[in-house]
Amino acid sequence: MSFLKEIQRRRTFGIISHPDAGKTTLTEKLLLFGGAIQEAGAVKSNKIKKGATSDFMEIERQRGISVATSVLAFEYNGTKINILDTPGHKDFAEDTFRTLTAVDSVIVVIDVAKGVEEQTEKLVEVCRMRNIPMIVFINKLDREGKDAFDLLDEVEQKLGLKVAPLSFPIGMGYEFKGIYNIWEKNVNLFSGDSRKNIEETIEISDLSSPELDELIGEKSANTLREEIELVEGIYPEFNKTDYLEGNQQPVFFGSALNNFGVRELLDCFVEIAPKPRAKQSEERLVKPDEKKFTGFVFKIHANMDPNHRNRLAFVKIVSGEFKRNTPYLHVRNNKKLKFSSPNAFFAEKKEIVDISYPGDIVGLQDTGSFKIGDTLTEGEILNYKGVPSFSPEHFRYINNADPMKSKQLFKGIDQLMDEGVAQLFTLELNGRKVIGTVGALQYEVIQYRLEHEYGAKCTYENLNVHKACWVDPEDPKSDEYKEFLRVKQRFLAKDKQGQLVFLSDSPFSLQMTQQKYPSVKLHFTSEFE
Ligand code: GDP
């Protein structure tokens, strides 16, 4: 197959949802359609379960699963589909944000009864800011839930999306009879007794057909006719360009558990979802069909076995072909690296591959040279943008609890930060180290891993910080900036890249600082124009 065809047939996406909405179940059903797995239950949930085991064990278990489910790839009707795993747990939101820099589109799963939930809101906002094309799947239609129109409203209001329903439910819960497929213009009936099997479709191409009355009863048929008329009246017709530009989001209804509405979603997805997209680097826009290989690291996974300290760096291929045993330039280190055993991912396994294409993810064995955000090229000096750090929510001093092991501690902190587990800030005033995290759970992860993988011990000490803001002076030589540096010295720190950060202790002091030093811009993310 030609290089261009290989690009055309790839779809790389992520499924985002609030925990429990049905992401794992949907992933599994998609893999079943692709023939990539044979039975339900094969895909493990990456959820953090509380209770049964200690949190530490749970973290390790989760980490094991998350290696296995990082990338799930399969073929469907000639399309190569790469699903990138996105943890739903809020303490791992940063992981998900970073993974979203490597997807070309997303599917948003919403629970019909719960509607739009907190994590969905946050993740969709990130996708919206980046104009990532989104398809919405409203799940669990076999249960009593919210009215379909109310839900569509909620999706528009809370998520700021412009929806175009491509399917519509016929009833719900016990009354759930099936869905009308607006995209394919047919009716697909849900049969309660074959709930566990791949559904059989009964197709009716015309809504006014009396056959519909026979199948679902006159009352339901008439309701459906009215509702579809309403849908067509209220919502715009699906427009592929709008979808691809992030200005419109098609919506599907179904039940992942019962494998209902999933084929419709997949068929439409394969047809409309974007092939690998061009990506902006600091230097220029890079197109996937460029001959020369470029890619970037969006995730790093440490080996769970402390005796094998190597890590797996996940690289998204942006352009060209990635080949085994070929020297590539690690731009940040200005070093050529060769990879003898790059991993490609399949449903449940990884294999060494000779060649990979734009849209694909390769896993590279790494002994510590990669950081999240690093760029690889054939020689061009290129730095991909878009793997920013966000202000953490929690801040604690980290102290060395075993003076004999300070070397191990620093090495451990260094590597865990490269992996993106948390962010390190070093105070300007006294050099003390502060760890910033998205969730409190990360502190346990760090402490546990420092001890088990690096033989180092640490303690934490609370620190009152509200937000970390990256400092961006309009004029670094101005008196105003000099005064800012002097007056705010005890709130200033450097991040791991050496960028200056202002650690504000309250929303109020942040506001006061902004008013007093208007020419010193303060950003909540590390990447700004
Ligand atoms: P995740 O946290 O988003 O990955 O959610 P899971 O896929 O693990 O699903 C959470 C729970 O919802 C599980 O108990 C599933 O069996 C259940 N579930 C998923 N899809 C459906 C559905 O369509 N109908 C019903 N009734 N339950 C579902």
Describe this structure as you would to a colleague.
The protein is an alpha+beta fold and 529 residues long. It folds into 3 domains: 3-173 and 236-272, Rossmann fold (3-Layer(aba) Sandwich), CATH 3.40.50; 279-377, 3-Layer(aba) Sandwich (Rossmann fold); 394-523, Peptide chain release factor 3, domain III (Alpha-Beta Plaits), CATH 3.30.70.3280. The chain is 28% helix and 27% strand. The protein is built from 14 helices and 30 strands. The protein has an 8-stranded antiparallel sheet with strand order 17-16-22-13-14-21-18-19. An 8-stranded antiparallel sheet has the order 26-23-25-24-28-29-27-30. A 7-stranded mixed sheet has the order 2-3-1-4-5-10-6, sandwiched between helices. α7 (210-216) crosses α8 (218-234) and α11 (406-419) packs across α12 (441-454). The chain is globular and about 80 Å long. The model is unreliable at 194-199 (pLDDT under 50). Belongs to the TRAFAC class translation factor GTPase superfamily. Classic translation factor GTPase family. PrfC subfamily. Residues 8-277 form the Tr-type G domain. Keywords: Cytoplasm, GTP-binding, Nucleotide-binding, Protein biosynthesis. One of its GO terms (molecular function) is GTPase activity. One of its GO terms (biological process) is regulation of translational termination.
